[in-house]
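Appendix B, Record 12. Input sequence as logged:
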Amino acid sequence: MDDPARALQTCVAPDDDSLLIGADFWPRSVDRRTPGLPFWPEGSFGTIALRLSKARDEFQMMADAAAGALKPGGTLYLFGGNGEGIVSAGRRLGEVFAAVETVQTKFHSRVFAARGPRARLKAALSDWRSTFGFHVGEANFSHVTYPGVFASGRLDEGTRFLLETVPAVGGKVLDFACGSGPIAEVLTRRHGDVRFTLSDIDAVSLVAAKENVPGVPAYQIARLRDLPADKFDAIVSNPPIHQGVEQSFAALRDFLATAPDYLATGGEVFLVGQRTVPVAKLAGALKLRKHASDDAFTVWALHR
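Logged structural output:
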């Protein structure tokens, strides 16, 4: 079994001049998917450890960010599991640093040490901002995104199906696991009286979402139960069903168990998932019906 954290610990121990990026087990850590932690490195450090990102563009962004935060003469340690593509990531690290060497290969993992950042780094988050266009029906949208955001650079098909089939919503609406905010962006334009709240576990996704849907409350949370107490007329979601690369319904089960506490009287949950996702078995106290379905996706409507 891959254990990249253990492999890293055999190579370097953190001190007051160290930063960990992409995980949270050093005293000073930065992780975009851990609520309460900073999501971008600030300051400069003699030692930086970087956890390999799943998405290639996110890795490229964070390698540049780490290099930009490294003191002259400092060392960056890149660590990841063999099954995560760490070997090829080491080759890509050579595009950012002048010297890269393997320093550990134990625990089905690998650790690289890199020194000498090259010039022309894109070390600020704003350097990685991009936009793409999409349409739903006859309406066209320009959408902000960043590396590592869900479905970065396109509107995923599940979200599109939800937007094409969801009934009119109004009042207070929560977009749970909002990503970069395409659901709220489209429905805000479609229904002028809607008042959205956004939530997602990824801080960088929320940066994009707040650009796409300006002026709305946004919360970085891992679970619905972590949202401040409130009541919504509707909750919309394309919920996560993976933990890393493995399929997992734990987050969906927790979301559905908590949703009744956040629904106003008469409120409904509208969520989209692949047809194989067992929403009916996970619904708990919620009553549900199939609102729409095609060959790939189902939109479910649930209420108390």
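The two ends are 42 Å apart (CA to CA).
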